[in-house]
Specification:
The complex is a heterotrimer of chains A (322), B (335) and C (451).
Chain A lengths: L4 H26 L14 H8 L7 E3 L5 H6 L4 H8 L33 H15 L5 E6 L6 H13 L3 E7 L2 E2 L2 E2 H4 L15 E6 L3 H16 L5 E6 L17 H10 L2 H11 L5 H24 L17
Parallel strand pairs in A: 1-2, 2-3, 3-7, 6-7
Antiparallel strand pairs in A: 4-5
Chain B lengths: L1 E5 H15 L3 E5 L26 H9 E3 L4 H13 L3 E8 L7 H8 L2 H4 L9 E6 L14 H5 L5 E3 L4 H13 L4 E6 H4 L2 E5 L11 E4 L4 E5 L3 H14 L4 E5 L2 E3 L3 H11 L2 E5 L7 H12 L9 E4 L9 H7 L3 H11 L1
Parallel strand pairs in B: 2-3, 2-4, 4-5, 5-7, 6-7, 10-11, 10-13, 13-14
Antiparallel strand pairs in B: 1-8, 6-12, 9-11
Chain C lengths: L9 E6 L7 E2 L4 E7 L2 E6 L4 E6 L6 E3 L5 E4 L8 H8 L19 E6 L2 E6 L19 H10 L17 H12 L2 E2 L5 E7 L3 E6 L13 H5 L2 E7 L16 H9 L6 E6 L1 H12 L4 E7 L7 H16 L2 H12 L2 H4 L2 H16 L3 H14 L14 E6 L8 H7 L4 E5 L6 H4 L1 H26 L1
Parallel strand pairs in C: 12-13, 12-14, 14-15, 15-16, 16-17
Antiparallel strand pairs in C: 1-3, 1-6, 2-5, 3-4, 5-7, 8-9, 10-11, 11-13
Helix pairs in contact in C: 2-3, 5-6, 7-11, 8-10
Amino acid sequence: MDLSRDDLLGVYRRMRTIRAFEEKLQELVAAGKVGGFMHLYVGEEAVAVGVCTHLGDADYVGSTHRGHGHCIAKGVDVKAMIAELLARRTGTNRGKGGSMHIADVDKGMLGANGIVGGGIPLVTGAALSAQVLGKPNVAVGFFGDGATNQGQFHESLTMASNWGLPAVYVCENNGFGEFTPTEFAVPVKDIADRAAAYGMRAEIADGMDFFDVYEKAGRAIELARRGEGPTLLECKTYRFAGHYVGDPTPYRNKEEVEDWIQNRDPLDLFESKATEAGVLAADDLRTVDGEVDQLLREAVAEAEQAPKPEPADVLTDVYVRY
Amino acid sequence: MARQLHTGGAINEAIAIAMRSDPSVILMGEDVAGGGDRSKEGTEEMGGVLGTTRGLVGEFGMNRVRDTPIAEMGLLGTAVGAAATGLRPIAELMFMDFLGTCLDPLLNQAAKLRYMFGGKAKVPLTVRTVSGAGMQAAAQHSQSLYWMTTGIPGLKTVIPSSPSEAKGLLLASIRDDDPVIFCEAKGILNQVEDVPEGDYEIPLGEARVVREGSDVSLVGFGATVRVALEAAAALAGAGTSAEVLDLRSLSPLDEEAVLGSLEKTGRMVIVDESTPRCSVARDIAALCVDRGFDFLNAPVKCVTAPHTPVPFSGVLEQAFLPSAQDVLDAVGEMG
Amino acid sequence: MPRLGMTMEEGTVVRWPLSVGDPVQKGALVLVIESEKNEVDIEAPASGFFRHVYIQEGETVPCGALLGAITETADEPFDAGAFHAAEHRPEEAAGGGLQVKTAGGGLQVKTAGGGLQVKSAPAPGAPRPAGERAEPPVAPAARAAARKLAIDPRRVPGTGPGGRVTKQDVEAFAVAREALLPVGGGVSLEVLAEGEGDPVLLLPGLGTDVSSFARQTPMLVERFRVHGVNPRGVGLSDAPEAEVYEVAQTAADASRVCEGPAHVIGASLGAAAAIELALAHPDAVRSLTLITPFVLATPRLLALGDGWRRLATEASPEALAAGLLPWFFSSAFLADEAVRSRTLRGLARTVSRVPAPTIGRMAAGLTRWSGSRSLDLGRITTPTLVIAAGEDLLTPAAEQVAEAIPGAKRLVVEGAGHAVALEAPDAVNEAIAAHLAESTRGRARSAFEST
């Protein structure tokens, strides 16, 4: 393990921030302060943080409609994210994107994406940029199990493999494509099996275990950086919340959900491993919890005071020049 | 100095100039090199199905001239991602009809990223594509779908009418910071004319008066500019002075040039080789009626293809395409 | 009549339950109406006295009509006229609702009580009620040019398909209008002037323009300054609103066309104007040529005037010309197919330049003038030539005019119709030439004698 105590505290802070962010968001939705479609990342925190801990600002990630976790893991400013969801001019996207398009290109975050599979070719293109320009950067695409049925997935992975692009394709297999269990929709046992069709390396990680994701993602990213081509990394995880905020989830077994939450919570798993190893103390983590809560309270308070877009803003930023 | 080039030659030259002047420009598409392996002795590249990009891989190498799999969605989606992250790709969509396989990267990604991200991204992408009928390529390889891309905010749509126009407009398109759909109409591909040497750009969104006239305006773009010119010559013989306007780009649209010509002549015919419903022709007709109502001396006429797929038979294809006679008939009807 | 629903346009008064004079409380049943097959009780909108019934039980009237009146006191007067005037005032834009900006002349859209109401004022060129001839279409560019040049585009002769008025037509009209001659009272007339010499005035008849002298003009311009006068409402001449275009006014207008006394040549109603001119402005007239004149219109002529106006309203110029042709020309003349169709085309062109309101006004003037000068012809001292036609159906007593004017010469063209100047130009021109020459010589001689 190459992570220092501070690194691990940072990891925990990000995972906790994702969790707290999504919980705060649910409050804001309930209070009628946030509009639009909202998809929560609760339960999958270890995947985003496990992967992104290896990445710098010059590396790119592409995301999905369930993108808040990827943004936070990639270092996007949480206050600007809250402002975006509250549709403020100070938001990451100046109030023009919202939850499904939240982005910060300067942080290498190529955006959440409202089209299932839509982000996969974008990160393939980012990997192409790095290759053509001879930069040591990698591009990581996050997508769900459902997206692996999309043509964009097949076409992109084919091309990436042809060209040996510095890309890592991270499938967050959370067991459901919207409301349909993965086994009804995906005709292979593991998503990783699909990699064979593209002549691509594949790995399977326990998506609830930060350390497992961290290790396997690190290997894939390192290979990509060295010019040894792309990897398909399947992270088996679970969506604690419904598909969207307000989803009553009648399609899931309540005991099953309860079992995951009680026994497989990635934050709990991280805490017990880190404390059992004696690297972090529970008090350290509770301090982080308090700081994260404070950050989100401030973020909401500041965003609520921030200006809304002007109606004339509807016309700006369609083109660079028209 | 100018020499005679056909449209493909002019396009090839524009790409080479753009790639020489900017290392971030790359060319990607199905068989743009044509024959992926340059190391095989005794072979030559095709340079695309029409040979337009032949020779470029030799000068710029396989890193910048990329044959993609026949996978248009992956091709365009990757090009969009590359454009958003530092490259300035020229992606070739072999025929515009293939938009059917790959609309999402253009419709939902390229066109939207900048807006959705609050202006914090740009997508300097050029999609070159062959549009239109005239080669007996039938229903799936002959459509003029520029009306579709013109209707998508965030995209630009350019359609040159001759080799020299193609060169200047393509250079401007490649260097433009927004996604541009560059339509190479089949009707102009075999055209040959003097093309200036060297590096020159024709600004997007500025129409061109190809022929001055005072009695009726004939607006064309791409292959229909020649149709309009042919009709104008015939009208001149009959004592009617027709002005011919080449739009050059459909988005942005030079509305002032259209209205200016209408103000001058009071009569407007738009010649568009696409099908009529929701077409560029009718869009411009609506512009004329809306903003140019007080200029109208006669009803606005749209000369378009019929509302049918493009047929295979040469006889049928010629019946499908708007002709100079169709333009003359329209002028006759409007009085 | 209250409007109870969006589609309701009229309603029927079913019952007035009160008697006139009864006191009434606000909210009490005051009226039952029927609309779209439903009977609806109408409550009194205010307390007072039920005073007037304007629409009786069983009558159907449009929404907005005044049905009855409740006044505050039992005996105050109620002025229904003032009510109407107040109700039909242009509405003021209701505050707070949608506001629609209108360009002049088009639709007027007002908002009231939440819903949009569209009140249309007929714009120039808007569809006209059934039974009226459709005006030639006016191209938008022509409309705009006409607005700028302050021209009524409906008065512009159109050269486009179906008579469509183009921008160029409006501009040509504007140029022609520049050459209009002011004759006083803010009225300008289209006067076609040509040739050099002593002045000649041409006065055309009912519903025609100076083209009815087409066969005489070439001969006249060789020796005279010819002023072809299109009277009020004809061609490009102004068409002031009026019930009647009086013959005396036509004569007064003509008197202002040129300097010095003129040889005046009038046909039919134009001859009436010429007579009027000779009587009222004798100094303005050097000689008088009266072609098919009258002083007392026959019932047939009066009937034709009425029919002409109605045809001009409802039929095309071509149909109108076809209807007029047999009245103007002789059987012998019309026997030639080629001549007939050529004449028909020419007549259609001529009548297309005279709108229906002008026909009505001129015909009214004719009626008014008829008989007014029967006893005055003897006072005419001007040298006069009267030309009559043997087959004239409209002014058969033309020859008697000659008898009544002292010293008048006469020419009777046997076998010709009312439009004798067109039908028999050689005989007519010869007589006119001789008459004008004689009158000119006569004047020269008298001028010589007076010295």
